[in-house]
Amino acid sequence: MYSRREVNPMLRGIRVSPQWALQRRSEQITALLQQGEQKPFKEVIDISSGDSHRTGIKPISFVRQVLSVCLYPELLHDDTLPVDVRQRAQRLLGECDGGSVGSYTDSCGLPPVQRSVAEFITGRDGGVPSYPHNIFISAGSQTALKVMLKLLVRGKGVSQTGVLTPQPYPHTLPMLLEEVGAVLVPYQLSEEQGWALEPGELHRALTASREHCRPRALYISNPGIPTGHVQSRKSIEWVIQFAAEERLFLLVNEVYQDCVYGEGMEFMSYKRVLFEMGQQYSDMVELASFHSISNGIMGECGLRAGYMELVNVDPAVMVFAKTLLCTDISAPVTGQIALEIMVNPPRPGDPSHSKYTQEILTNRITLAQNAQRAWEFLIGLPGVSCQPVTGGLFIYPRLNLPPEAVEQARSDGLEADVLYSQSLLDEEGVCVGAGCEHGQREDKYHIRLCVLTPSATLEKVLACLGSFHLHFLDQFSQHA
Amino acid sequence: MYSRREVNPMLRGIRVSPQWALQRRSEQITALLQQGEQKPFKEVIDISSGDSHRTGIKPISFVRQVLSVCLYPELLHDDTLPVDVRQRAQRLLGECDGGSVGSYTDSCGLPPVQRSVAEFITGRDGGVPSYPHNIFISAGSQTALKVMLKLLVRGKGVSQTGVLTPQPYPHTLPMLLEEVGAVLVPYQLSEEQGWALEPGELHRALTASREHCRPRALYISNPGIPTGHVQSRKSIEWVIQFAAEERLFLLVNEVYQDCVYGEGMEFMSYKRVLFEMGQQYSDMVELASFHSISNGIMGECGLRAGYMELVNVDPAVMVFAKTLLCTDISAPVTGQIALEIMVNPPRPGDPSHSKYTQEILTNRITLAQNAQRAWEFLIGLPGVSCQPVTGGLFIYPRLNLPPEAVEQARSDGLEADVLYSQSLLDEEGVCVGAGCEHGQREDKYHIRLCVLTPSATLEKVLACLGSFHLHFLDQFSQHA
């Protein structure tokens, strides 16, 4: 029989992540609770991922109304639904082959969705033009990133493609790089400076990497995943110069672009800064920018859609990108429709405008207030430090754990932050993310919490975390 | 700048398919018609793909009603919707984290969907048990097939994984094999015997392949894509024996299992036959079976969901499959819900049962009648032969083209069936698939037509095809 040791050797290194193990544990606990087992808690609260609906954030009504009409067009005649809902559904259905969301779309997505995305980007970037033929609709940002990585990968040994990757990184990135056969080249973000990118460190990482691979791309996430750091225009300019000098392809994850709430902060896209730096850059630097409906305020993870904008990419290479997206066939049409609404929401004067705006605003306020509240609470705990967050969905506190806890984890074959997260889950029914998933320096432990959750849920989580934390410290001090 | 010659060498061989070029041409013609250009036809009819909604086949109401309620749960209170629609939606929403289809699911899909699929298979296979943990929900059968292929691929040169592949094959298969780095090992189906699989030919292909690769898997599609051939139990038994003797992993595409309409024919799954052959086979032969909501009677291509059932696969290998599916994140929840309904339709006594049954039956009858009608028409055309079809969505006639047409095509750098299809599109606005996409022996030309389309549309297509065909023959005879 085909056994583990016969599996494609390129994939054999892929391991079940600690996060996956934590989520399985969380499901097992939920199953036990449902079978009537007594625990000190009634349900598991999972705030480990940026999946805000999971813990009770409500979907945006307009998105769901339009989708329900598109799926069941009889609702076009339902007068209880706002007229702009029905008009939007009718327009989008008119763009689907045979008037059905059940038809395949082009591998790059429905043309009207590409057009709306291009208009959205042009508006967002103060008029820097975006063109529909550079927009690739995909089943989420990760699918599109995988396509670009596949195209960039080549060579073996010292000529193998290296991708400069921030540490901490989005937890799915290492597996993706491994799957396509790229070398992860880490550059450390500066926690002390609020997780900012340090030019000297990026230079160091690039130079060091040349001994074992050929760095061809630079991956950035802005706002940072999971750090929440929002890059300044100056920092972006520096990165673009660096990419130009070193001929690096920029892969920029901008999925949290609508989640910037730090005072006086605003999101600035790499594309905009690139074009405002003048032709010597805007004609040359290759850039792929990723966005999706999953992350951010809308939180429609389950519908699966996102887009990639390519800038300065050789048209022959774009043909490959289209063809590869094609082997995954098109993104789900329901997701594409949600994306169209995200980039082209109801306008002032439309019947749904005020409700839409209000719902988005409510989520934004919840996010900003929760981030502040969580930060204040966390820095009050002994042995916890936390950089202020200014964007994104996560807060990423650092745990200064007792040596006895670290020792215990080591003897259990775990990272200390995994031991911490497991214990928190077992004792309090709260599931957080373990920092080791994001790559971290030795003995620097973190946990990850999604703060886009109803405020009452956050309060419950913080209360559990607070009492658990003290108990955990205490336990390992007694132990010593 | 990153140019074509720098693209991952493994992918550089991927070419734009003739089908893609035909569909672009079809879109251009549509755009010209919309701009008011005069043509001998008012619109393009595209029956090249198995995308039945595109040409007007209607979705199944129950599927769409449940989905609309899941997306917009306010509709739970809409009394105009049947009660079983609302009950089903409520139950499925209850299984989604946070009660929202906007939440991620497990990478293998929602557990209730896995359970319903396993029950469906058990029922279909006369009680041969199927287990939810062997069911992997994916964003379509192709995504799951790619995961399995990735796992099976290894080695270089003579040890590189070869996949025995029927010729004609599903047109997306060569690109998929190329992308993952597997060697396509063709075995020719026998057109003269209604596209049946010939044991001798499979032996020949296997033996010959050993000179340049290591055959590790055997790909089958039953009912055949695009041939429509339905395999007999005896033929399946032979294939299973062959796979057992040669230690081949069976990759079985069974997406057309609900489209068998040949008189006295029935679909027999590989899994069922395997288990009915006794333990010496059922404990040993490794099998992956694929099904989806896209193909077949339901035709929900745009919603993107399918499943793979693994049999006799090492649990350690299954963990890899789960992890790889995970890098694509979960299948869209809307698609998963449609899948749940496909495998678990309304039952007798349910308010929606009669309508659901009627709609499915209507599509089935349309399919069977159209297939018969198309076959009778096609064999009446000079220079056309066609095997009777007994399953699937396509009819796949062979064209005996004048040598002058073949010559003309050659000088245009095209296959003769592409020239034929292009001319048909240009002159009559009918888009069919060109046989060369499926791999064919030299000078054996075919076209592919989807027959699941409204009967009136089929009549229009046949009329256009008939007059075009005579004109095409005539043109090249005059030429000579």
From TrEMBL, chains A, B:
State if Ribosomal protein is listed as a keyword.
no
Q: What is this protein called?
A: alanine transaminase
Write down the Pfam families for this protein, in alphabetical order: Aminotran_1_2
Q: Which GO terms describe its molecular function?
A: L-alanine:2-oxoglutarate aminotransferase activity; pyridoxal phosphate binding
Q: Which UniProt keywords apply?
A: Aminotransferase, Pyridoxal phosphate, Transferase
User: What gene name is listed for this protein?
Assistant: LOC110524681
- Catalysed reactions, as listed in the record: L-alanine + 2-oxoglutarate = pyruvate + L-glutamate
What pathway does the UniProt record associate with this protein? Amino-acid degradation; L-alanine degradation via transaminase pathway; pyruvate from L-alanine: step 1/1
Q: How does it assemble?
A: Homodimer.
Cofactors demanded by this protein: pyridoxal 5'-phosphate
Q: Which BP terms does GO give this entry? A: L-alanine catabolic process
Domain Aminotransferase class I/classII large stretches: 81-462
Q: Which family does it belong to?
A: Belongs to the class-I pyridoxal-phosphate-dependent aminotransferase family. Alanine aminotransferase subfamily.
InterPro entries on file: ALAT1/2-like (IPR045088), Aminotransferase_I/II_large (IPR004839), PyrdxlP-dep_Trfase (IPR015424), PyrdxlP-dep_Trfase_major (IPR015421), PyrdxlP-dep_Trfase_small (IPR015422)
Q: What domain of life is recorded for the organism?
A: Eukaryota
What Enzyme Commission number does this protein have? 2.6.1.2
